Amino acid sequence: MEPYIHKVDFYETDQMGVVHHSNYIRWFETARIDALDQAGLTYSKMEEVGLFGVTLAVNCEYRRSVRFGQTVEVEPVLTEMDDRFFTIRYTVRDAESKKERATGETKHCFVGFDGKMLSLKDADPALFESITSLIGK
Prior knowledge:
single chain, alpha+beta
């Protein structure tokens, strides 16, 4: 999966021009959606199949500050996947220097329109196999 590239906007920073910690979680979400799109699991496809991805947990470890005007790349890696759950690990790097700025992880499950947990493997076996093939990439 290709990294998501993001130029830091002024509204994402605090009074000192440093990115507020909550924005890293937003970047994870945008990188995840972008990566799933690349893998063929768009939100419209998920709705078509009758399921949604729900976030169960988020973790972020901040290593170095990111400031207004910098460009970062957020690299998502699918680390675990079964028919109902998946985990994505993220690395945020400065796009120019490639220095690591933060790392994190999100855990998700698939649910139907009724909010009950569903199996992607049962809903769309081909899509399940396609996504599973991306583990570690």
